[in-house]
Structure formats: structure tokens, C-alpha cells
Amino acid sequence: MLRRFLCTCNSGGASTVTVTASAKKKNVVFLGSPQVSASVLDKLILASQASHSIFKLAAVVTQPPSVRDRGRKNLMPSPVAQLALDKGFPQQLIFTPHRAGEENFLSNLKGVNPDLCITAAYGNILPQRFLDIPPCGTVNIHPSLLPLYRGAAPVQRALQDGVTETGVSLAYTIRALDAGPVIAYEKFQVDDSIKAPELLSILFDLGSGLLIRELPFILDGSAKVKALPQDDSKATLAPKLTSEESWLSFDQEAPVLHNKVRAFTGWPGTRAKIQVANSKTNGFDLLDIKVISTRVCHKGIQSRDKNEILFSGDALQIPCAGESWLEVTELQLPGKKVMRARDFWNGLRGQKLKLPSQLEILA
């Protein structure tokens, strides 16, 4: 269950993005790359096309085309570029620099005369030469309650920490990492079942709502005066996830592992090593699994073997530290599709499962 709380640093009432017919529309440039950014761009395009809109979309900036699917050799445009093309946006106004400091790109950006730049998961560092171009500044949608979780993976690190409250911030971009004055934010209370991709999508969707509501103040300059500086003493960092972090260690308590599974859903995912009894050798074979969905159990089935993995209801019960159990309801074997834990258990045909020792893992 998600509960919302909205806060704006502007003292004015509700806003509408409107302008008299005689006023000149402001030029807005959007920067973003993944699917969550495309959802923001979609709402921005819709707002720009509304009657009496005070702005127009002058250009879109995104990551260069890349290979996104295994087995494909063709380069594919980013989700943001694809959406812009699908909406009929001029291809010559979709810029795809490898770095935001490239001279040719900065020249093209100046050529569209941007009043404001908006970023949402763009994925490139913006140099000062970029930030100096738009007179109304550059505004970023950041999926955390700044100054908490500054960095590349705010949603993932918040879930990994098991927070019960998170949110989205609309802030000015400065050279320091996610440290600019905050224009508005929205809070959430988050349950313990939501995963990173879902929460990321929700936060960017709500962030786009904040953006549309605050655009009049941003474009007339009043937001810059009323935006609140961040308290750097309360800042925390959200570094990029790495594949090396994806392994689960069952000498930790189950809530810690459950939070990690939720946080790492998508990429890089979470992996674990278990042992499966081999009737031919009377030993155990080591098996790598990808853990997809979990929950926490504090009263698991007791076994004489403290490392035995059992099955109850619809889940594997894996013993963890602190007399807790991680219940795995979905998993994936190497080269296979995601399967229910029940189907995996039935396929074992009575073969015993257990956790390997550290020596068995290294063997």
C-alpha cells in the first residue's frame, strides 16, 4: 500500500500550465533514456499540446542507440527516442550524444535556444557548460526524498535499506551530485512487497505530475527564489548496483535478504547457491538459482539439519540468521524461465535440498 503526501516549496495555490495567446511559448528541452523517462516525456508532450500551453518541446536528448535484447545485432533507439519518434517528433531534434559535454551537441543545444532543460534518468553527467545554457536552469526528477539517496540507484538502495517511507523530489541541477535546491517533493509510505521496477515507475509518474504543476513557477523564475536548499549534513548516497552484489548470503537475517531481492529485481537480480542431493553419488550437487520473489517467515518448519531447505505452502523455506526463514515463491534455474517454487519442488522428486557450507561453495 502506498500513501501519498505532497509538498511544494511554492506558497501559491494550484497551478495550471496556461498562457495568453499573445505570449511567446518557452522552449523546453527534455533529457531522459529508459522507459520510466519515456512516461515523463509522454506527459510533457501532452501538456505542451494543450490549449494555451506556456511551453513547447524544442528538443529531446537521450542515450545513443544500443543493443537492448540478447541475440539481436541491430542497434535500437532508447525508449525515450522511440516514444518521441512514435509521437511524430522531428528526428533532427532528437540528440544522442555519447557525452553531454561534446562541442557539437552543445552547439546544437544552443541552436534550439532552450529556456529550460528537464532531466529524468538521463544517464549522463551534465557539465557546467551545459548548465549555463538554459536561463531558467535545469530541473531534475529524482526518485527519493532529497537529500536522502543521492546518486544512481535511489529506489534500489532505499528498498535495500528496508525504508517504510520514500518519495520523489523536483530539484534544480547543480554540479554537485543531486544537491540542488528542492522545488517540490512527494512522500510515500511503502509496504514490504513492492519491488524496485514498480516503485520506480510509480515515483517517476508522480514526479511528472509535480513537474507539470510546478512548470509555471519554474518558467517565470519564482521557483528559483522559493526553492529550499538541501541540508548536506543529512545527505546519504545511493551508488550504482553491481553484479557482484547480487549474491545472497544466508548468514544474514531473512528481512535483509528479502529487501535485497525487492531492491535488485530486474538488474542485476539476486542469486543464491543451494545443494541438491544426487542419488547416484550419494552426495550433493551445487546449483545456482536466481531468486525472483520472496517473503519473510519467522516460524519456519524445524529440521534436525539446520541447513536443510524445506517446502511449505507455496514456498521454499531457507533457514537464515536470527531464527528467521526466507520463503522463496519464485525462482529461475540457469537457462530456464521463471518458475513457481512449487513446480521446482515437485521436479525434485524427493531429492533433498540444503545450503552449502562456505568450503563447499569454494570447492
From TrEMBL:
Q: Does the keyword NAD apply?
A: no
EC numbers: 2.1.2.9
Q: Formyl transferase N-terminal domain: from which residue to which, for each copy?
A: 27-196
- Name of one Pfam family that matches: Formyl_trans_C
Keyword tags? Protein biosynthesis, Transferase
Q: Which CDD domains match?
A: FMT_core_Met-tRNA-FMT_N, Met_tRNA_FMT_C
Does this entry carry the keyword Protein biosynthesis?
A: yes
Q: Which Gene Ontology MF annotations are present?
A: methionyl-tRNA formyltransferase activity
Residue span, Formyl transferase C-terminal domain: 240-348
Q: Which GO terms describe its cellular component?
A: mitochondrion
Which family does the record claim for this protein? Belongs to the Fmt family.
Q: What is this protein called?
A: Methionyl-tRNA formyltransferase, mitochondrial
